Amino acid sequence: MNIYTGEKEARLNVPMMEEDDISLDGAQPLSMETALITAEEENNDQKYMQHEESIKITASQGKIQLPKSQSELQTFQSSIAILKMRGSLFDQALEDLSELAHDIYYGREIVREDSILELLVCLMLGLEPEDIPNREINRERTAASVLGSAFQNNPAAIEEIDNAKKNIIYPSCTPNLANKIEEDNFISIFRKKLEKEQDAHNLKIKITTLSRLLKSNHFRGLFLENEGMELILAVFLKRGENFNTVKKKISELLIDNFLDESYGAQVNIWPKLPRSSKRFCEKSKNLFHDGCWEHHIEEFSTQVPTEDWPKNLLLALKSRRPKKISLKTEI
């Protein structure tokens, strides 16, 4: 059952929308013989098998069935082990998780693995630990896809965020010299890399994943406290027609999480400030001010007059904005 709509849903999640999906054509599940090639990996697998009974109990209590496919279960266990040990089949393991994460059981288990969750967040942010093999795939996109699929329509995984929120907001990434960043805050790292990001598809998947993370009350609170909405506005203001689809994803994020209760949004927590004047928002120092969303959306809407979603977003914002008050900052 979907906790936001009250409607019954199938046990398996629907994978990320086609436009956000990652093509994994040709990727084959890893066999245990191929994946667990060292004694250390075999020991790790033994730990998983020993832990299986407790997993069954937990799954039963949470009314989440243990997957029937032993092949999929072995692939999942192998992938987790390889990622933890930075094995040579690292990228294949990451892609295999992307294939499995939409299942409610696997989605929840991914979030429960603190080190894996933190690794996925780091990869999504473009911060790769120094001890992983050279890349063969787009790891930012694949990691974001794994996380997004794990949280999609998965209340059990979202509940686990409450215990893992600091691993997401404050990931302990060890960036290599090529992408070294001093800040260790999810929002600040994302923002720092935003200027150089030219892959609209990467950003779209990240925004989709972020929207699903925001279904967690605890994560949402930390996100708002750390100027997360300013980050989202900065993404919205990326220039270029190729980013128009990203802007639409941001519109969906705002409506789903903050503006429309029928989509499960928690209303009256954002926006907190009244709308700012055009004159105020046109000043460069006020570009990312929270009261300037409408100004930027209206500017964009004039560029795409046939699109309805900017107009709908403006109406949704208008319905939630506090009434206008006199602000000294706008004088």
Q: Would you give an account of this structure?
A:
By secondary structure, the chain is mainly α. It has two domains: 70-171, no CATH class; 182-323. It is built from 16 helices and no strands.
Properties at a glance:
single chain; 331 residues; mainly alpha; 2 domains; 16 helices; 0% strand; globular; disordered N terminus; protein transport; signal; translocation; ARM-like; transport
Blueprint (SSEs and pairs):
Blueprint: H1 32-35, H2 39-61, H3 70-85, H4 90-100, H5 104-112, H6 114-124, H7 139-151, H8 155-169, H9 186-194, H10 200-213, H11 217-225, H12 228-236, H13 244-259, H14 278-281, H15 293-303, H16 309-320
Helix pairs in contact: 2-3, 3-4, 4-7, 5-7, 5-8, 6-7, 7-10, 8-11, 9-12, 10-13, 13-16, 15-16
The number of strands is 0
Number of helices: 16
Radius of gyration: 21 Å
Q: Tally the structural domains.
A: 2
- Chain-averaged pLDDT: 82
Relative strand content? under 5%
The biggest sheet, with number of strands, parallel, antiparallel or mixed sense and barrel status, is: none
**Low-confidence segments:** 1-61
Q: What is the gist of this entry?
A:
With 331 residues, the protein is mainly alpha-helical. The chain has helices at 32-35, 39-61, 70-85, 90-100, 104-112, 114-124, 139-151, 155-169, 186-194, 200-213, 217-225, 228-236, 244-259, 278-281, 293-303, 309-320.
